[in-house]
Amino acid sequence: MNHPVTSLSPPPPAPWSGFWRGASGMLPLCLSVVPWGILAGSMAVQSGLSLPQSIAMSTVIFAGAAQLVTLGLMLSGASVATIVISVFFITAQHFLYGLTMRETVSVLKARYRLPIGFLLTDELFALSCAQPKEKLTPGYLIGAGLTFYLSWALFSLMGIAMASSIPDLDHYHLDFSIVATFITIVVPMIKNLNVLCGVIVSLLLSMVLSLYQIEGAIAIAGVCGMFCSVMIARLRQEA
Q1: Looking at the chain, which terminus has fewer C-beta neighbours within 10 angstroms, N or C?
Q2: 29 domain-assigned
């Protein structure tokens, strides 16, 4: 008598599987933000923050662009309201990151969701987008995010220590590393014509608007680039 053959689905991966794979995958992006972290640490000292405050700036806020903008506004004497509004719009892309990763993260327990939410950065989002969904375990996401977090804290500490011995680090144009970092993030994500056109429109428009010193040039260029990508996708009848 023949018994029906039942197909057994593979067991789900352990929550912490992929931790070291995520950590090693994040290392190249960690190296690319060495100058960025040093600049953030040194600017914290130059803006008048104490040593504990400078350390907390990197370890608690953990947002490179937001930190640099905040410190720059503090040096210029901007109000608290101006700083809060500026940082809100600069980091608004995290809402999109959260919505994109909702399907993967929402099913996890709170003890995994909370650290992933804190560790979510542009770099972690880009790294996760390059991975199949079945490999995005809590261990992978936390391993990658924690590696970047520790690296950022270390590079910021280096900047804090160097601020007293090498003054005016901002004159060395270390902020160019921000551009280099986002290039390494964006280029691998250009996989179709829609994204390519959006990137080109954002790039050219940001250069033109910045040339004419129009406020909010980067934000305007980014929104226009996304609008262009959506329109081209609809014209090509893509999802």
Answers
A1: N
A2: yes
